[in-house]
Amino acid sequence: MQKVNRWVWLTGVTLSIGVALVSGYQLLRERQVYTVRLATGGASGEYYAFGTAIAQVVAAHEPKIKIEVVESAGSPQNMQAVQARRADLALVQSDTPVLPAVQAVAQLYPEMFHLIADTAAEIDSIADLQGKRIALMPKGSGSYTLFWPLIAHYGLQPEDFQAFPMSPTEAHAALLRGDVDALFRIIGLGNESVAALLRDPAVELVPIQQIEALRLSQPYLQPTIIPQGAYDGSPPTPAADLPVVAVNALLVAHQAVPLEVVKAVTRTLYESRNELIRANPHTAQIQSPSVSQNLGIPLHPGAQAYYYQDEPNFFVEYAEPMGLLLSATIIVASGIWQFRLWLVGRQKNRADMYNLEILALIEQVHSASSLEELRSIRQQLFEILQQVVVDLDIDRISPESFQSFTFPWQVAIDTIRHREMILMNLTGTR
Fold first, then answer.
1. How many CB atoms lie within 10 A of CB 223?
2. 3-class DSSP assignment, residue 112
3. What is 111-247's CATH topology?
4. 65-70 and 34-39 as β-strands: parallel, antiparallel, unpaired?
5. Residue ranges of the domains in the chain?
6. Across the strands, what pairs with 25?
7. Nearest 5°: phi and psi at 252?
8. What tens-digit pLDDT sequence spans the chain (430 residues)?
9. What is the pTM of this model?
10. Do residues 87 and 38 touch, judged by C-beta distance below 8 A?
11. CB-CB neighbours of 251 under 10 Å
12. Assuming Cys at both sites, which of 6, 16, 90, 128 could form a disulfide with 123, CB separation 3.0 to 4.6 Å?
């Protein structure tokens, strides 16, 4: 009996210690502040601005997560940094070879190939780069890395032209000075520095042809267009829809980053859209969650936990009796299909309404005679954008309609900037 009591006592003490340890561990986890490093790009680049917006909004909603935005040379370096755990998260181009310890979090937005040339250089295609001086982005960047397989398709070798790697700011200045004949850069549509460069009539965008043939050797490339007027509406730049190719910007994480951290970051991307857009309008192009679930590379468990959180348990899903009558199934399916057709039509009509409002505001911009009028129009544009984001969240418009909306909205913003410059020059305002 004494031995039994001793074992009972020892078991009770062991269980108490175990409960205390588990409770203490859980308490520490609840109070723990996570600091993670997000590798982006150069401080003046789009990746850095995008990463800064994510860090700001995550900090506002998740006080236990602090994101340090880290400068880098570009996608290949970012992938290596995550693999070596010098960074926990990173922005990379979808063509970057994925390393074993790196997992996907989300697909963000398309990055388009921009070949911008001096009009006097008579460059109408990539093949015309032979014998020319080309400004490239810094070595190690995604733009630099992708340039070489691109020109190889057209039969060009490095010795066929002069290549000058430099920063984006230096490349833009070199083209305007005439020190180079063209520059190549992969960037999200509507980049402000590219828009400013294209306002100079001495430079132009060059189309990238043979897109389907390019994809035979580079399947990660996606055919796309730079829409007419994407960079300026009056006169439209480009003057017509311009065929180009694109890769996608991805958010990736090291597999060892805690699940709750990646889940919180993923949730911020999709559920804090308004704040993200206010911090950086380009975040409006973030792809839908369904796209990120099918990237062809392993998803981080934290991203999986967010994407599949609403999926029912297998036994719950199939708990209902399976013996429904065939006629009832047909009636229900028909009703759902009719409702879907009605909903899609309603979503499209609502999106078209917003696009018409944008076009009307663009007309007002052209006739505006004061900076105050332009400020009022800009405010109306951001109010429309906020309403569209709300409608997207509650399924009043579809993700496809939202993507089509972002183009005229950005054109309107760029048109305002162009009109402001004209008015300031007329009035001598600085």
1. 13
2. strand
3. D-Maltodextrin-Binding Protein; domain 2 (3.40.190)
4. parallel
5. 1-30, 31-109+250-307, 111-247, 325-427
6. none
7. -125, 165
8. 444 445 545 555 565 565 555 555 455 555 678 999 999 988 878 889 999 999 999 999 999 999 999 999 888 899 999 999 999 999 999 888 889 999 999 998 888 999 999 999 999 999 999 999 999 999 988 899 999 999 999 999 999 999 999 999 999 999 999 999 999 999 888 888 899 999 999 999 999 988 889 888 888 888 999 999 989 888 889 999 999 999 989 999 999 999 999 999 999 999 998 899 888 887 888 877 877 777 778 899 999 999 987 654 443 344 444 445 445 454 555 455 454 555 555 556 777 788 888 888 888 888 888 888 888 998 998 888 888 888 887 878 877 777 777 788 888 888 888 888 888 887 665 4
9. 0.62
10. yes
11. 25
12. 128
Q: Which fold has domain 325-427?
A: de novo design (two linked rop proteins) (1.20.1440)
One fold for both 31-109+250-307 and 111-247? yes
Token pair listed for 20: 């205390």
Q: Tell me the CA distances in angstroms from 15 to 2, 22, 93, 230, 405, one per residue in order.
A: 20, 10, 51, 67, 60
| CATH architecture of structural domain 31-109+250-307 | 3-Layer(aba) Sandwich (3.40)
Q: What's the full length of the chain, in residues?
A: 430
